[in-house]
Write a structure and sequence with these properties.
The chain has 559 residues and is α+β, with helices and mostly antiparallel strands. It contains 13 helices and 13 strands. The radius of gyration is 47 Å and the shape is elongated.
Length: 559
Amino acid sequence: MAGITRSGLGVLACALLAFFAQTALAADPPPASKPAASAADATDATDTTRTTRADLADDPATLRILNRDVVTLRARVGGLTPKLRVQRAEERLREMPVAAIDDPLRLVQARLGDTKGVTFLLGGRPLFSVVEGDVDIEARQGFDALVKETQARLENVRAAWHEVHDEQRLLFGLLRTVVASLVFGILAWFTYRVGRRAVAWMEQKRDVLAARHPYIDWREFLGRLGVGAMYLAQWLVLFTLAYWWMYYVLASFALTTPLASSLGNWLFGKLVWIGEGVLESLPGLATVALVLLITRAAADLLRYFFDAVQKGRLRIPLLHPETASATRRIFTLLTWALGAALAYPYLPGSSTEAFKGVSVLLGVVITLGSAGLITQAMSGLVVVYSRSLRRGDFVDVNGVQGVVTEVAALAIKVVDVRNEEITIPNTVVVSSPIRNYTRLGNSEGTLLTTKVSIGYDVPWRQVQALLIAAARKTSGVRDAPAPYVYQRALSDFYVEYELFASLADPRQRVAGLSELHAHMLDEFNEHGVQIMSPHFFGQPGRAVVVPKEQWYAAPARET
């Protein structure tokens, strides 16, 4: 191989010439060529004792020379696997002088035991051998056809080797490469510039439509699709240019011509594979579309049915308007789950291992992360189907008073008097007492209660009259049922009174209670009755009240 140093390509060509013997067979040649073949076989037999213990699998091994497939070896011969037979052929070729490339190619019949084979020799030097076990049975190929095909490929490799060393062809290939690179650069630059201008123009139109309409317009949606399509088209054109540039450059040199052919075959094969996949998937996709359409129709029918129940247009025993919305969501979820289960087997690739792996992964993720979610959802069902509260009710849940604005599957939302939206998880709602001040408000009103402690020196009838008078002055308090008072406790220093008044609008409970307290203070002060809260340790000499003339002391103003 030392003689190949005339040029860099010469070195590469000689190395590829070494591939010429990549699948050498350690079979004994006939007696006429016994010395040469015996030397090769002796080397193989000696090396076999060192390498047969490598426990290599008998996978087919292909001999490649100058990026060209010569022959694929499949049989184990003399203890050598196909891979080791290729390695022995490479070793022989590395030891072969460059001048041997022009020697005549000879075929010699060989036999190793009951195995029939042919040894290929370049001049008098053995390259490799093929046996009957190397025949591709699946391709229905005969042994003679394999030998002829291998011989033709070797002649093609010899011609390619001479083309690789042809300086004129090499210069011509370099010139083609330079021209192709310049053309590719110009076209890529032009495509990039035109693509950027087109995308910028489309984005400008899209932004104008978005600024003109407060809501998403269908033309804006089409504009966004157009921007994405332009980006995709730009990169597809650039990819096509790069692909053809690479194909043209590889086809310009004899050494890389097989790579160009493989590149073209790969693209064509991928396009055919995609087309066949689309055609094969059409029946399944049609079935999936039909199942989804039927599922959608069933879901719409359920929505119409439960909306009628919710609005009171349809009455069904055991199905209340308050629970219709939640029941509709449950049945809709079950309907879509059934539809997905029916459509799943018809999805393209649903039976592949990748699809199954993704399904298992999603199942594990949902199983590990849904424990708390399921608890909240079940608590939400308890809240909904117990009908303890609904949207618009004024409630007290876990110390939070306010109007319910949303009853969802995982939590409820309450807006309190400070105009704060408070989210309460359903697990908290289920585990806490719920005071609903609205549920009975339409018939009897919501009771507004407050307590006051008055000394024993004040007649209880007067206290009751003052409390009832304060309640009647409070806006939003119903006349029927009339306000009433209970003596709740007889303590050591005072009597504890509790006033009950019916409030028309439960949402005004906090404001109504504040107004009621104000009127109570006015009534008791006006009549000189002292309120005994906080406690007194000694009876004062006069009643602790605010004279009427001081009710609007600065900065207060009479309204």
